[in-house]
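@channel sequence for tomorrow's demo:
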Amino acid sequence: MTKTLLITGAGGVGKTTIAAAVGVTAAREGLRTLVVTVDPARRLASALGIAHLGDEPTPHTDEPLLWAAMLDAAASWRAVAMRHADPDVAARLADNEFFQAASEHFPASQSYAAADQAATFVQARAWDLVVVDTPPSGGGIDFFAAPAQMADLVGGRLLRWITGGPLPGRKLLYNRAARPMLRVADSILGSNLLERVAEFLVDLRTTYDGVARRGREIEKVMRESSIVVITTADPAPVREAVKFYRELPGLASTPEAVIFNRSLPDAWASPTVPPKTSAELRSIVELWGSETLRQRDTREEFSARYGATVATVPLSDEPLTDLDGLALLMSQGSGIPWERIGVG
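structure tokens (generated this afternoon):
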């Protein structure tokens, strides 16, 4: 049985590095592990030391039980159209500029495409563990809400109001009545803009049954997954982490842990300063001590308020781009519930 670990949280908190490090740790524990990201900055490839990553899982040359993939959200959304629409409609949708714009700029479509492909990897049962570095849009919540949002988009009241009654009857009415009128309007405007928009919306409606059905399958995978929220002790990422405890219960399981990345060691809270230390250096040490206390207080408050399992990963001196460094980073972590997240 394939276990799934969803690594989520706000952008810029080190999610991709943690996902890569967990993947390396799991592979070295003897698990066939796939790490998946939708990060366009290619940080996963850099972290794992892989020259090229694409939609298809790439085996790591130096770690026999480790694979990685980087999803192209636009390409994945094209695959969604191909899967859920008739071939002629799918081809027309995929070539429509409005469809392309939606796939690139509508967060729910990107998150849905990523969730769809990640669920496909899980359902393939080719790995013991699939680690998903989720998109940061909406602080990470969009990934979990995307299946329902996409079903609402292609079958909701707004689109039904725009496109009219049930399909395929509406398609026939559109061809016989609406299209000629739109052509007249477009001739006045000097383009076929309105006709292309209407055709896109009607075509999009045809994908509803497939998108809704697939959305339920994706939600099932999410409910059965382990979730780990990554944050730092800075106020903005903590606010994003709080969202998972306020909004996630209706979308997926409760997170197994909140990992505070880039944590300072507790020993820095009360450092021993030699008597002859200069005033300037003493001031710097005191500042680091105050920051360490603030981070610790933030973690304790978060744990007490939300009943969360809180873990830490230490601040790293430099970017991690080799497997040993990633494995060492996770070994230095504290409080990580490895067994609950499917590792060890």
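heads up for whoever presents: Confidence is low (pLDDT under 50) at residues 165-179.
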